[in-house]
TrEMBL record:
<keyword id="KW-0274">FAD</keyword>
<dbReference type="GO" id="GO:0050660">
    <property type="term" value="F:flavin adenine dinucleotide binding"/>
</dbReference>
<dbReference type="Pfam" id="PF09317">
    <property type="entry name" value="ACDH_C"/>
</dbReference>
<keyword id="KW-1133">Transmembrane helix</keyword>
<dbReference type="InterPro" id="IPR036250">
    <property type="entry name" value="AcylCo_DH-like_C"/>
</dbReference>
<feature type="transmembrane region" description="Helical">
    <location>
        <begin position="43"/>
        <end position="65"/>
    </location>
</feature>
<dbReference type="InterPro" id="IPR009100">
    <property type="entry name" value="AcylCoA_DH/oxidase_NM_dom_sf"/>
</dbReference>
<dbReference type="InterPro" id="IPR013786">
    <property type="entry name" value="AcylCoA_DH/ox_N"/>
</dbReference>
<dbReference type="InterPro" id="IPR009075">
    <property type="entry name" value="AcylCo_DH/oxidase_C"/>
</dbReference>
<feature type="domain" description="Acyl-CoA dehydrogenase/oxidase N-terminal">
    <location>
        <begin position="122"/>
        <end position="233"/>
    </location>
</feature>
<feature type="domain" description="Acyl-CoA dehydrogenase C-terminal bacterial-type">
    <location>
        <begin position="515"/>
        <end position="797"/>
    </location>
</feature>
<dbReference type="Pfam" id="PF02771">
    <property type="entry name" value="Acyl-CoA_dh_N"/>
</dbReference>
<dbReference type="Pfam" id="PF00441">
    <property type="entry name" value="Acyl-CoA_dh_1"/>
</dbReference>
<dbReference type="Pfam" id="PF02770">
    <property type="entry name" value="Acyl-CoA_dh_M"/>
</dbReference>
<dbReference type="GO" id="GO:0005737">
    <property type="term" value="C:cytoplasm"/>
</dbReference>
<keyword id="KW-0285">Flavoprotein</keyword>
<dbReference type="InterPro" id="IPR006091">
    <property type="entry name" value="Acyl-CoA_Oxase/DH_mid-dom"/>
</dbReference>
């Protein structure tokens, strides 16, 4: 009995010490005391075992002892197996900052570290711009007109965008820009997502491009010249990075600049001779100034002793002699300006280098530092805005579209995608807004930028597919009335650009986060490079303590013990506690994967992707809780919170299961499974009752629908019709209409109305004649049904409308000419 008691005390005590990462001295004391108790109370065997354990802990855990024999051996092994970090990888790793992503990597996230990023909301001028200028711009757009008729935005819209400073949102007011916060930029792009081409056109100049690069790195002369001109639209920028042979691997640029001297107007000018071929460059066909990334060489050593000077960035006027620009690509589903740029032996002065000579060779660092912010804003905001419009349209359509005498929104097959769309939109809104809030507090979230770009554009893919499904024939028939189909076809652009999602998920999220966000790995690698054994000892054994701590935290919380205190009230508290549990499990699995695979983990992209999936879902869930905690709640929002968190935590656990099943070391996979999920999976998919509740609220005039669609273009006073405003108006009147539908349809079912009254309009008129409904109700229903029919109607065209070359048109119904009767002859043999 005493032996069992000592074992229990040792296990429980060690778990507590490990959870708290109390260190070797605490473990040594516990084991030593329990061992002595065993020897003194006739439990000699367990006492000896515990004392041996205490000796082992002392030898491996006490700094003075381990540095004599253990640390040198581990250090030598580590130097052989640690992955080599190239210069470009190190630049990417050192770019940006670590905030909440680091907390999730630690396995013991401190929620106050996230909640302390207070949200001050939008400034008065930012909100006014969102309410007025953004609504006006969105109101000038019709997808059919822009995509099919013009292949461009209308001229008056271009003029309006320049006049109102849309291209200068990130440029400070002292240079003539709007000086907007990251949150305001995001909200603007969400509102402009009513039209894909409009959002991209405004988003790109405010993302990765000359404006941000000039702000951070430009010389004062460059800033003073270009920033005011970019702010007011006199200059339209583009940035040439990708090319035929440099896409996701942007560091493999084949474009070359050579330092040389050129005689211009009788004067010798030091400059660069550039040869380049770029493609997929947004705004290139109309750009007046071109940012260019290239590899710079100085074979004559005119600038110093180095010949290869590295990736460098320059800003080149459009009319530079020898530059070929103006042709267009045709991006799928959206005719935003995009095209190639070429040049052979194009000479530019040295002062075209962004930042001047001091920034020669710093181009890759400049790009990744800017990209970490831009990728958090533009495409994630576009995806979030698209989600909101798609939900608003779909909720409205499914409520007014009736089949089998009921709105299709009452059918569970439609409620399921509606709820999924609402949850994904809710998650996206929270994530992009709260990450922008981090940026406004000075953070440069590198790893979250990869999470947002890949996860939210994938959400967009699912949401648009769901929206197409519930709209049916309304959405698959293209024309001016179709507000959804063209945007749906453009979705692959968001999936592909700014780091294709395949690459981002498989290589970047965990690949970068494992080193950048981990509390110890970067220090270990730095100690290796510096050959500093003492620094390595501190980092490595701190790392070891974290591994034991995460194992203990994951295991005990998996059993339901030791749930951490969290600064949330119900219903959010349980989700925050489980994020902490899964964070500990994630930290443990990340270390196990790195330790067991070493540098080979780089090639295990599917495993890396699943580890990234865990981190992504925990980050998204955290942002949802932050938004819930900070915002005002409305009726029904708790159902959306439950659905969203269950959805994300279910996905996180699924990724864990796939990690355990696919680790090359099968025994390690089973051990991790037992430690991280001792009682099995905890989270099912969201239940059907949640889906039914959410679907009803987003397809009716409810507080939840109003909140989800806040700050979208929802007024019907633009130059173009606004389907969202029209659906909203119909939903306001829907309850009244539904009561009349029930009266009329009941009368029809009883035979009180003629069987020939098949259309709703016909039934209404006959019901009025028979006194079943009042004149006021009849007038109301006439107008209501007129509006409903307008929203259900699709476009049709002249037979020859789609043939660009009318000469190729086949008239299948043309009257055939009578065959010529040939005179019959016979021959007599």
């Amino acid at each position: 009995m005493l032996t069992l008691l000592l074992i229990i005390l040792a296990v429980v005590g060690l778990l507590i010490i490990m959870r708290r990462e109390a260190g070797a001295a605490a473990a040594l004391t516990l084991l030593g005391v329990l061992g002595l108790v065993g020897l003194l109370l006739d439990a000699a065997f367990i006492g000896v075992i515990l004392l041996i354990g205490a000796i082992a802990v002392a030898a491996a855990g006490l700094t003075a002892l381990r540095r004599q024999w253990l640390t040198p051996r581990i250090f030598n092994i580590f130097k052989k197996v640690a992955p080599k970090v190239s210069a470009t990888e190190r630049t990417a790793l050192e770019a940006g900052s670590v905030s909440w992503d680091g907390e999730l990597f630690s396995g013991k996230p401190q929620w106050n570290a996230l909640l302390n990023y207070k949200d001050e909301g939008l400034r008065e001028d930012e909100q006014a711009f969102l309410d007025n200028q953004c609504a006006t711009a969105a109101g000038m757009c019709n997808a059919w007109d822009i995509t099919i008729e013009r292949a461009d935005l209308p001229q008056q819209l271009w003029d309006f965008l320049k006049k109102e400073g849309f291209f200068g949102m990130i440029i400070p007011k002292e240079y003539g820009g709007l000086g907007f916060s990251a949150k305001a930029q995001s909200m603007v792009l969400q509102k402009l997502s009513a039209n894909e081409t409009l959002m991209v056109t405004v988003g790109v100049p405010n993302s990765l491009g000359p404006g941000e690069l000039l702000l951070k790195y430009g010389t004062e002369e460059q800033k003073n010249h270009y920033l005011p001109r970019l702010a007011d639209g006199r200059e339209i920028p583009c940035f040439g990075l990708t090319g035929p042979r440099a896409g996701s691997d942007a560091t493999s640029l084949p474009d070359v600049g050579v330092v040389c001297k050129e005689v211009i107007d009788g004067k010798e000018v030091l400059g660069l001779r550039l040869t380049f071929e770029k493609r997929w460059i947004t705004l290139a066909p109309i750009a007046t100034v071109v940012g260019l990334a290239f590899r710079l060489f100085d074979p004559e050593k005119l600038l110093g002793d180095e010949e290869d000077r590295g990736i460098t960035l320059a800003l080149i006027p459009r009319d530079t002699q020898g530059m070929e620009i103006g042709r267009r690509h045709h991006p799928i589903g959206s005719p935003f300006m995009n095209g190639p740029i070429k040049g052979v032996d194009v000479f530019v002065p040295l002062d075209t280098i962004i930042g001047g000579q001091d920034m020669i060779g710093q181009g890759w660092r400049m790009l990744v530092e800017c990209l970490s912010i831009g990728r958090c804003i533009t495409l994630p905001s576009g995806a979030t805005g698209t989600a909101r419009y798609a939900l608003g349209w779909s909720g409205g359509f499914t409520r007014v579209r009736r089949q089998f005498n009921v709105p299709v929104a009452e059918m569970e097959g439609v409620q399921e995608p509606l709820a999924r769309m609402a949850a994904m939109g809710y998650i996206a809104q929270a994530t992009v807004y709260q990450t922008a809030n981090l940026i406004d507090h000075g953070e440069k979230p590198a790893v979250p930028s990869a999470i947002l770009k890949s996860q939210l554009t994938e959400f967009q893919r699912v949401i648009l597919s769901d929206a197409m499904d519930v709209h049916g024939g309304k959405a698959v028939t293209i024309g001016p009335r179709n507000y959804l189909g063209i945007g749906y076809s453009a979705n692959p652009v968001a999936i592909t650009v700014e780091g294709a999602n395949i690459m981002t998920r498989n290589l970047m999220i965990f690949g970068q986060g494992a080193i950048r966000c981990h509390p110890y790995v970067l220090d270990e690698l730095a100690a290796k490079d510096a050959n500093d054994i003492n620094a390595f000892d501190k980092a490595f054994f701190g790392h070891a303590g974290l591994i034991f701590g995460n194992a203990a935290r994951a295991f005990t919380m998996g059993l339901g013990f030791g749930k951490p205190g969290v600064p949330f009230d119900a219903p959010a508290a349980a989700y925050a506690q489980d994020i902490a549990r899964l964070s500990a499990a994630f930290g443990l699995c990340a270390d196990a994967a790195m330790a067991s695979l070493g540098s080979a983990l780089k090639k295990r992209e599917m495993l890396s992707a699943r580890l990234g999936d865990v981190l992504s879902n925990l980050y998204l869930a955290s942002m949802v809780l932050k938004q819930w905690q900070a915002g005002d709640k409305v009726e029904g929002e708790d159902a959306l919170l439950h659905y969203s968190c269950r959805f994300l935590l279910h996905r996180a656990e699924q990724a864990f299961v796939e990690i355990f099943d696919n680790l090359p070391n099968r025994a390690l996979g089973k051990v991790l499974n037992a430690v991280a999920m001792p009682t099995g999976r905890r989270w099912d998919k969201p239940h059907d009752d949640l889906a039914r509740d959410i679907a009803k609220r987003v397809s009716t005039h409810s507080a939840l629908r109003t909140k989800l669609l806040a700050n979208t273009w929802d007024t019907d006073d633009g130059e173009q019709p606004n389907p969202l405003a029209r659906y909203n108006a119909l939903l306001v009147d829907y309850d009244r209409a539904e009561a009349i539908y029930r009266t009329v349809n009941k009368a029809y079912a009883k035979g009180e109305l003629p069987q020939t009254a098949l259309h709703p309009e016909a039934r209404v008129e006959v019901a009025f004649e028979k006194g079943l409904i009042s004149e006021e109700e009849t007038l109301f229903m006439r107008e209501f049904e007129t509006q409903v029919l307008e929203m259900l109607t699709v476009d049709d065209f002249a037979y020859d409308a789609f043939a660009n070359n009318k000469d190729t048109l086949i008239d299948h119904n043309a009257k055939k000419a009578a065959p010529v009767q040939q005179e019959q002859t016979s021959s007599v043999k």
